[in-house]
Amino acid sequence: MGSLLIDGIGELTTHGPQGTLTGAALVIVDGRVAWVGPSEAAPAADRRIDAAGRAVIPGFVDSHAHLVFAGDRAAEFAARMAGEPYTGGGIRTTVAATRAASDDALRANVGRLVAEARRQGTTTVEVKSGYGLTSKEESRALRIAGEFTTETTYLGAHVVPEGVPADEYVRLVCGPMLSAARPYARWIDVFCERGAFDPDQAREILRAGLAAGLGTRIHANQLGPGEGVRVAVESDAASADHCTHLSPADIDALAGSGTVATLLPGAEFSTRSPYPDARALLDAGATVALATDCNPGSSYTSSMPFCIALAVREMRMTPAEALWAATAGGARALRRDDIGHLDVGARADLSIVDAPSHVHLAYRPGVPLIHQVIQGGEPI
Fold first, then answer.
1. pLDDT, tens only, 55-82
2. How far apart are CA 56 and CA 24, in angstroms?
3. Alpha helix ranges (H) inside 120-153
4. How many whole angstroms separate alpha carbon 328 and alpha carbon 374?
5. What is the distance in angstroms between the CA of the first residue and the CA of the last residue of the chain?
6. Does the pLDDT value for residue 137 go beyond 90?
7. pLDDT for 118
8. Closest listed residue to residue 166, CA positions, set 132, 200, 128
9. Is 246 in contact with 276 (CB distance < 8 Å)?
10. For position 87, what pLDDT does the model report?
11. Which end of the chain has fewer beta carbons closer than 10 Å to its terminal beta carbon, N or C?
12. What span, in angstroms and rounded, lies between the C-alpha atoms of 110 and 66?
């Protein structure tokens, strides 16, 4: 693989001890950051990229995405924009389409979305199952997801299928379905929400996942107040995702825990729901991540820059806070220390931004500012 020098960097965001540097350079050796410092002091390398005054940022870490699906729900979106409320019930529509799709069709769709995200600077993406809801279909989804990422999440507990008693389905999720999914999953997730799984069911499902060696994460407090955040903290979940409706006690619990609050502003944008109070979480000392929640129903976007712009405009985050949440925060939500930053030793995942500063990601929303993406030390 050799070495690669990137110099002429106008602004380099490391999210490491060196902070943000101007007039900077970095050297990559064998897929890792090997040196960071001023351009004029940079060592020679086998190859060189001149950033020409552009900003360089860590690759985005999208820690919440539902990419294994078929079909779309554009009609549902149009209905919401016409005033119909979002209830989460459209998940079953996607389940039917996904079950009917071939492996090749699902694989092609995941590949399309991963490539789409990569063009926008995402170098790590988590992918969930959850649109199969049978042992065979959930394991199939995870097997396909694993062709694109190591961050695969078993979400058999997305909703209860129609006609199946909830307790019977929980036993399936915790038993045969978990056994079928386990070889292909790193994480287990549960949608703890009215109309999905109650707190006791969520606890049972997460305990089963832990016993099987999976890390835990949870959909919490999206549609209204509830116990999802409490369940996440009790379970030492890596991440509580959505966090749209939080009480002061929820915020304090997250701030005093190792559980990341992963905010998904694309879902609020697409459902016309209130945005999470990121400012309150940050001021309390909670760790915050941003992710796309890319899915065909409630957040059909693969754009982390779009989520950064929403976080700054609608959730009172500063541009620097939003960038950290979309990179280092996402890495924390996946309990990874090798990505989300550009300190020496980190995996060389980064983007060259066609702007002099990371602020432009929020300042120029909707503009394709990612000039070049480097993943594992290789331009792509």
1. 999 999 999 999 999 999 999 999 899 9
2. 9
3. 135-145
4. 17
5. 14
6. yes
7. 98
8. 200
9. yes
10. 67
11. C
12. 9
**Rounded-to-integer distance, Cα 83 and Cα 142, Å:** 35
Token pair recorded at residue 279: 């400012």
d(CA 12, CA 344): 13
Phi, psi of 53 (to 5 degrees): 85, 0
Residue with structure tokens 């890792």? 32
The dihedral formed by the CA atoms of 296, 301, 304 and 308, expressed in degrees to the nearest 10? -110
Strand 3-13 to 20-29 pairing: antiparallel
Which residue type occupies 302?
S
Locate 86 and state its tokens: 């979002």
The pLDDT assigned to 367 comes to: 97
| Predicted pLDDT at 84 | 84
pLDDT at 85: 81
- The per-residue pLDDT for 88 is 61
What proportion of the chain, given as a percentage, has pLDDT over 70? 99
258 CB-near residues (< 8 Å, 6+ apart): 236, 238
Burial of 84 (0-12, 13-18, 19+ CB in 10 A): exposed
- Residues 202-230: tens digit of each pLDDT: 999 999 999 999 999 999 999 999 999 99
d(CA 100, CA 102): 7
